[in-house]
Amino acid sequence: MSRRELEALTRRYVAEIIDAIGPEKDVPAPDVNTNDQVMAWVMDTYSMHVGHTSTAVVTGKPLELGGSVGRREATGRGVMIVAREAARHLGFDIKGASIGIQGFGNVGSVSADLLAQAGARIVGVTDWKGGVYNGKGLDIPKLLEHARMHKTVDGFPGGEPLTNEQLFALEADVVIPAALENQITVENAPGIKARIVVEAANGPVTPEANNILQQRGVFVVPDILANSGGVTVSYFEWVQDRYGYFWEESDVNMRLEKKMHEAFHAVLQMSLKYKVDMRTAAYIVAIARVGTVTQLRGMYA
Predict the structure, then answer these.
(1) How far, in Å, are 5, 18, 54, 160, 195 from residue 76 at the CA level?
(2) Given a cut of 90, is residue 38 above it in pLDDT?
């Protein structure tokens, strides 16, 4: 679609769901194939309908329209944090660890960049077109520039060609599926050699594959925990919009670090307590919190 067609589609879509969204209802945020410009159209359309500017109706907006610094990097930063904490739990340091990443969009590229800055070796990266492998570690700044220019990591001169099938079979400490759903299945799960799988994408591991990985002792950080950095900073953006005061990026990152650290260890402790995998533990934590507040509020008859 042209930019004008995309804007028209976005505005009409928002007009159709106008009663379902709002600063105190559901607050949308960007995902695959949407960006800060699309969120700006959402905000403007809603504001026109309600008759006043309402920046808190949507997150992931441009900074000029009430967006938050650190929001674009937030999901990838959260992935880095939980990967680091998972490595610590298993007794090794993320510094020097070997990592393979599927997907080099916003989440995958930021995860790769931040993990490389933390001292990890990003040995393999794949995307929609191809991939690249270097056992000594890819030069991530150069790979980012290559991807920016060519819209793919395919053809990067700093390594050898790599397929998605080869990525999941890498001799790596950590594998991060950061593309689309259903990427790790019963077909390739038995061949995964990584000690940790961090679900940066939504639903990249099928339920059947998750059981296989659990039986094989692979530590899986589930998507609802691993990629929650984005929605966490979306919440921070909503808070800032409502408050009318905006934080420095260091404040945003510090608050995200604290939330992700707390969330990871709350789930980990539940996992150890009930001897269940991290996905089940995350559900237990969530349901327990809902159950607690439901009991405290009581039933309105």
Answers:
(1) 30, 30, 28, 25, 20
(2) yes
Matching residue, tokens 């794949």: 126
Q: What is the pLDDT of residues 176-231, one digit of tens each?
A: 999 999 999 999 999 999 999 999 999 999 999 999 999 999 999 999 999 999 99
194 near 100, Cβ under 8 Å? Answer: yes
User: Average pLDDT in the 7-29 region?
Assistant: 97
Q: What domains appear along the chain, each with residue ranges and CATH number?
A: 1-67 (3.40.50.10860), 68-301 (3.40.50.720)
Opening angle at CA 52, ends 51 and 58, nearest 5: 110
Q: Is the CB of residue 75 less than 8 Å from the CB of residue 148?
A: no
| Sequence-ordered list of residues with C-beta below 8 angstroms from that of 44, at least 6 positions apart, any chain | 11
For residue 71, give the nearest of 197, 193, 239 by alpha carbon.
239
> Contact, 169 vs 148, CB < 8 A?
no
